[in-house]
Design goal:
By secondary structure, the protein is an alpha+beta fold. 19% of the residues lie in helices and 26% in strands. It contains five helices and 20 strands. Strands 2-20-19 form a three-stranded antiparallel β-sheet, with no helix packed on it. It is elongated. It starts with 8 loop residues before the first helix and ends in a 7-residue tail after the last helix. 51% of the residues are buried.
């Protein structure tokens, strides 16, 4: 079957999933209930879109969790096997090997959360609000903030130093605030800008950083090299974030419509630009090796009654995507496909009678034994995979 590139790949995938389950990857869970000012209806917190070698976390069983405010920030763990999502009200959601160390969910905030950063150990994180208030959790130490101080413009971004002993904040006017061992090497504060600053990224050395404006203009400071920008070029949507490559010799920009722009040694692995994707996009988070990235949408990937984002559509997309990833990730993706169908069983219109069988088949192929696959097991896998191709209308994947 072309999807698998040979039967030998299945034991590897099953082994990886078994290992992930052993270390407790239980899916995206509401580590803290979100509160604050309730939205008109709850947001469905769902998986960011992955490209390249960025890993989809172990799928949750059952319905996804909900947040009262949209998700606005994301940080990944050092292993790349998990991530944190932060909502505007300070609620934190965990996935994979990302531990929960606390949140601001349910607490009064003067201003909404706008960004987050993780410590190098992956055992803590910071949240920052628009007023410059910084909230520290786990082994993330508090080194100071702009909370309670007058600001010429709201804070829009945050970056941690490589040591984890400091961080920078950046405001929409380009002002940069340094705390702990984060060195100040310049800013756009007080200078005329065509468009406001929307994000920042630090170099691997911690001796420089980039700022990006909504028009795609890039400003480099310290040892941050300039590798290009979108300034002066037509954009379908404003740029919302910048992320550096592990080498520090390139960076990505991402626009609100999910368009991705690569510079220097930053590879292009795909984007969400175009019809049929959740919008708007809030952030781009690279995988640890720079061989891929995740795109975070501020809007729910699934909301009842919204055509095109039902459980079946998401499940089909995940099933198709599993044909183009390394074997070690396929079982995880098949379980996520099953999770999307479980959601669809509750919210999709029309005939959902075939969902239960498809969920069972997905579960079966995700847990093929690691060693000594018998002829009957191989035949069972091929039968289940063929049935799933028929269910999703993807017979070409079976050629």
């Amino acid at each position: 079957m072309r999807r698998l590139g040979g039967w030998w790949r299945i034991p590897i995938a099953a082994s990886i999933v078994s290992g992930l389950l052993t270390i407790g990857l239980v899916g995206l869970t509401p580590a803290a209930a979100s509160a604050g000012v309730p939205a008109a209806e709850p947001y469905v917190v769902y998986w960011p879109e992955q490209f390249g070698d960025a890993v989809t976390c172990q799928g949750a069983i059952g319905l996804p969790e909900t947040a009262e405010q949209p998700v606005v920030a994301m940080a990944t763990t050092p292993s790349g096997l998990g991530y944190w999502l932060a909502a505007a009200d300070g609620g934190v959601f965990t996935c994979g090997d990302a531990g929960f160390y606390g949140s601001e969910g349910g607490k009064p905030l003067a201003q909404p959360i706008v960004a987050m950063a993780a410590t190098p150990s992956g055992k803590g994180y910071w949240l920052v609000a628009a007023d410059g208030g910084v909230f520290s959790f786990g082994d993330a130490a508090f080194y100071g903030s702009e909370g309670g101080k007058p600001l010429d413009a709201p804070v829009v971004g945050m970056a941690a130093t490589p040591s984890g002993k400091g961080y920078w904040l950046v405001a929409a006017d380009g002002g940069v605030f340094s705390f702990g061992d984060a060195g100040y090497v310049g800013s756009e504060g007080g200078k005329p800008l065509d468009k406001p600053i929307v994000g920042m990224a630090a170099t691997p050395s911690g001796k420089g950083y980039w700022l990006v404006a909504a028009d795609g203009g890039v400003f480099s400071f310290g040892d941050a090299g300039f590798y290009g920008s979108q300034s002066g070029k037509p954009l379908d949507a404003p740029v919302v974030d910048v992320a550096a490559t592990p080498s520090g010799k390139g960076y990505w920009l991402v626009a609100a419509d999910g368009g991705v722009f690569s510079f220097g040694d930053a590879g292009f692995f795909g984007s969400e630009a175009g019809p049929g994707f959740p919008q708007p996009t809030a952030a781009l988070v690279p995988s640890p090796d720079g061989g891929g990235y995740s795109l975070l949408s501020t809007e729910p990937a699934v909301r009842p009654g919204v055509p095109g984002f039902d459980g079946y559509a998401l499940a089909k997309k995940e099933w198709e995507a599993s044909d183009n990833v390394a074997a070690v990730f396929q079982s995880v993706m098949w379980q996520q496909t099953a999770s999307y169908l479980r959601l669809g069983a509750s919210i999709d219109g029309g005939d959902t009678s075939g969902y239960a069988a498809a969920i069972f088949e997905l579960t079966q192929i995700a847990y093929i034994p690691e060693m000594d696959v018998t002829p009957s097991q191989r035949a069972e896998f091929e039968a289940d995979a063929n049935a799933l191709d028929n269910f999703f209308g993807t017979p070409s994947l079976n050629n």
